[in-house]
C-alpha cells in the first residue's frame, strides 16, 4: 500500500479528517519512528509489530 492510499483510506473512514490533516499526522508519526530508530531505540506498536535497527 502506498502512503497516498493510506491517507485516502483513513480520510474516507474518518470524514471529519481531511486528507491534508491525515497526511500531516502520518508524516509526524513516521518522523517520530525514524527519530527513535536513529537513536537506536526499539519502537513497538502492540498488535502490529516492532521496529529495530540492525547492523551487519
Automatic annotation (TrEMBL):
Single GO MF annotation: structural constituent of chromatin
Keywords assigned: DNA-binding
Pfam family, one: Bac_DNA_binding
Similarity remark: Belongs to the bacterial histone-like protein family.
Protein name: Integration host factor beta-subunit
Organism: Ehrlichia ruminantium (heartwater rickettsia)
